[in-house]
Amino acid sequence: MSDESTTAGRDFIRDIVAEDLASGREKGVVTRFPPEPNGYLHLGHAKSICLNFGIAEEFGGRCHLRFDDTNPTKEEQEYIDAIERDVRWLGYDWGKHLHFASDYFEQLYAWAQHLIREGKAYVDDQSQEEIRVTRGTLTEPGQNSPFRERSVEENLDLFARMRAGEFPNGARVLRAKIDMTSGNINLRDPVLYRILHAHHPRTGDTWKIYPSYDFAHGQSDALEHITHSICTLEFADHRPLYDWCIDNLPVPSRPHQYEFARLNVTYTLLSKRVLTELVRGGHVAGWDDPRMPTLAGLQRRGIPAEALREFVKRIGVAKANSTVDLGMFDFVVREVLNRTAPRRMAVLNPLKVVIENYPEGQSETLDAVNHPDDPAQGSRQIPFSRELYIERDDFMENPPKKFFRMAPGREVRLRYGYFITCRDVIKNAAGEVVELRCTYDPATRGGNAPDGRKVKATIHWVSAAEAVPAEVRLYNVLFNTPQPEAANFAEQINPQSLEVVTGMLEPALASDNFAGAVQFERQGYFVRDKDSAPGKLVFNRTVGLRDSYAKVAGDA
Length: 556
Ligand code: ATP
Ligand code: MG
What we know:
Blueprint: H1 12-23, E1 30-33, H2 43-58, E2 62-67, H3 77-89, E3 98-100, H4 105-117, E4 121-124, H5 128-134, H6 152-164, E5 173-176, E6 191-195, E7 209-211, H7 213-223, E8 228-232, H8 239-248, E9 256-260, E10 263-265, H9 272-280, H10 295-300, H11 305-315, E11 322-324, H12 326-340, E12 343-344, E13 346-347, E14 350-355, E15 363-369, E16 379-385, E17 387-391, E18 411-414, E19 419-427, E20 433-440, E21 458-459, E22 461-463, E23 468-475, E24 498-505, H13 508-511, E25 518-520, E26 524-528, E27 538-544, H14 549-552
Parallel strand pairs: 1-2, 2-3, 8-9, 10-11, 12-25, 14-20, 18-21, 23-27
Antiparallel strand pairs: 4-5, 5-6, 6-7, 13-24, 14-17, 15-16, 17-22, 18-19, 19-20, 23-24, 25-26, 26-27
The structure holds adenosine-5'-triphosphate and magnesium ion.
């Protein structure tokens, strides 16, 4: 869709893998998904997961889950657990290949010593600020550090003492000795190790120095015999450094890095920093708040994993960044749910209806199919009686021309039920409509009139006595602009991102135990929330039957 090279599930990365296998350059394919455990996974990560695990599956290889846990100040066990859960939920399995960059700390340290011995790395005593200033700019070359020509012995000694914890944070770093005049800033003596007195979720207090992403990543790939190291475009400029490390170290294999465009979606910010601030700042109820684009949030909102995989398949894999319309995501979600979700009736903004010619105290049940296109889902019985609720929006006292639903004197069909005619409108002292008095035609049971007369509308309803009240959470887009800016995200939060109503549900919904979303007929897809408790039902809206966010932004 976003790239011409994406046809029939093929893309430029799959083409490369296929060629490498065909030419014999690689004997098999090994990929990895390498999250940093500093937050929950989001929709963008789903693209990377589906790509890495998908390629491994399609080409008979394997995909590792490797935590890139090199920054202990931001990483937590909670995130490790959540990431594992979410990758599984998405439908992928790493088998025995659960790895951590921290498993390789000892080896990485030995390789750093190797570089020192080869005269390709040195300990720099300059401050972070001095290093930044002397790195130069895109147009100006950098300047050599005054510590660049230290002897191998001195470097080895200082590096060992860094490891031993003799120096405070920031006192020294280990840098690769490459080229301070390189056109690629990443090659201007990049930092390989920094001092960090911090507790690590896995290695505890063993280490006082931690490798940089650039030093850990490629070497971890090589240790795991990764063949295709797939990452997002912002790492393209790091590839020469990735290759430099691989070329200059006695690594056991030679992985190659390939870059693809990261996923951006309208009305959404896919940045862990922003998502973390949304949680910490209390803008949302947590990482799994259904308004969050996290996999945990999407799951809680009732999005099926299948819809995520299908969405990723359709957007394809491109080499140029672009933004996908949120409408496309919702479209795929609706498509999957329309096919699978059982149907139920629920009234979200109830208006009472009294059927005057239906005997008081009497009731009956009507047969309702669970899915119009899937007879295997069977049917259920729904109660019908003298007092009902219908949707307030399905009535208008003075209907305009195109409004065919309930109005004074008008006859409509109740879904799965009878024709009813509105005879009278009852209002409260404030002039608001509080009740409709109607009559029903007993001959229309099942929804058709024997005399062949037609009605123009069918509306949903519930029987008042048996209806179950529920808290229904109606979610809207979290940001009120199609291209929210990460810098001032808080100002762009949609004040109507969550609306809570008390709905009246058909009784089956109180006892149903569906794992996923159901369709509330004519409204959208809804899923039971984990906040439900005995006697308290809570439902989340997964997605409406049609787009609503265009209205939110006022650009409809
Ligand atoms: P963020 O930008 O949200 O902070 P990150 O890149 O720091 O994310 P990592 O945990 O390092 O998060 O990401 C793991 C993998 O997921 C990386 O290979 C990264 O390139 C990929 N990834 C992250 N965001 C996206 C995205 N929006 N689209 C596609 N892939 C992504
Ligand atoms: Mg990252």
